[in-house]
Amino acid sequence: MDSRLLDILVCPLCKGPLIYKKEDKELICKPDRMAFAIKDGIPVMLADEARRISDDVEIK
């Protein structure tokens, strides 16, 4: 994942910052508790395709 791209990407829902989880190939939005997949090096920033993170999981 290009660090320059990570600097400009924001959550499409709240426009907040994202956390890059390299091992999971995901970008995480803490406030919205959403995980956006990275497929073939390209972030899929569609809310309909995002994974909801359950409330009992701690986001680091």
Describe what you observe in this structure.
This protein has one domain: N-terminal domain of TfIIb (Single Sheet), CATH 2.20.25. The chain has 60 residues and is mainly beta. The radius of gyration is 11 Å and the shape is globular. A hairpin with a 4-residue loop joins strand 1 and strand 2 (26-29). The protein is 10% helix and 28% strand.
Features:
single chain; 60 residues; mainly beta; N-terminal domain of TfIIb; 5-stranded antiparallel beta sheet; 1 helix; globular; lipid metabolism
Summarize the structure.
Keywords: ATP-binding, Kinase, Lipid A biosynthesis, Lipid biosynthesis, Lipid metabolism, Nucleotide-binding, Transferase. 10% of the residues lie in helices and 28% in strands.
Please summarize the sheet with the most strands: 5 strands, antiparallel
SSE arrangement, N to C: HEEEEE
What is Rg? 11 Å
Oligomer: single chain
GO molecular function: ATP binding; lipid-A 4'-kinase activity
Function: Transfers the gamma-phosphate of ATP to the 4'-position of a tetraacyldisaccharide 1-phosphate intermediate (termed DS-1-P) to form tetraacyldisaccharide 1,4'-bis-phosphate (lipid IVA).
Keywords: ATP-binding, Kinase, Lipid A biosynthesis, Lipid biosynthesis, Lipid metabolism, Nucleotide-binding, Transferase
InterPro entries: Trm112-like
